[in-house]
Amino acid sequence: MKILILITALAAMLMPAHGALRQCAGSRDRRYESSGFLTADWTQKACNASGGTIDPNKRGNQKCCNVPDSNQDKFTVWCAGQSDKNFNKYAPIPQPC
């Protein structure tokens, strides 16, 4: 029982205290790419690069990353630098979820 309490306390301390839900939307003419693949892929990559965590309950065009406050700029830069040759008319747009 004591070990379980210790693990829970350590996990709570390691979780980021503050963050924001962000996504890297695949957008063209103010519209999402319809399959949701592009937004999900770009959000996942920007999230990994910025040390964030993906909300497991959202997928496709709703995919969100909880980005620590200290890494907001890193998420934005990583998002904006992405491209996909199969979706060359779509631009990555970092935005809140």
Task: Please name the defining characteristics of this protein.
97 residues; Alpha-Beta Plaits; 3 helices; 5 strands; globular
Task: Give me a quick take on this structure.
With 97 residues, the protein is α+β, with helices and mostly antiparallel strands.
Description:
The chain is an alpha+beta fold. The chain has one domain (18-96): Alpha-Beta Plaits (2-Layer Sandwich), CATH 3.30.70. The chain has helices spanning 2-14, 37-50, 72-80; strands spanning 19-28, 31-32, 53-54, 65-68, 91-96. Strands 1, 2, 3, 4 and 5 form a five-stranded antiparallel β-sheet that branches. Strand 1 (19-28) and strand 2 form a beta hairpin. It is globular and about 35 Å long.
Which residues sit in consecutive blocks of at least 5 with pLDDT less than 50? Answer: 8-14
Q: What structural category characterises the helix and strand content?
A: alpha+beta
Number of helices, counting only DSSP H or I runs of 4 residues or more: 3
Please tell me how large the radius of gyration is: 15 Å
| Shape, per Cα inertia axes | globular
* CATH architectural label: 2-Layer Sandwich
Protein name: Secreted protein
Signal peptide: 1-19
Keywords: Signal
Organism: Phytophthora megakarya
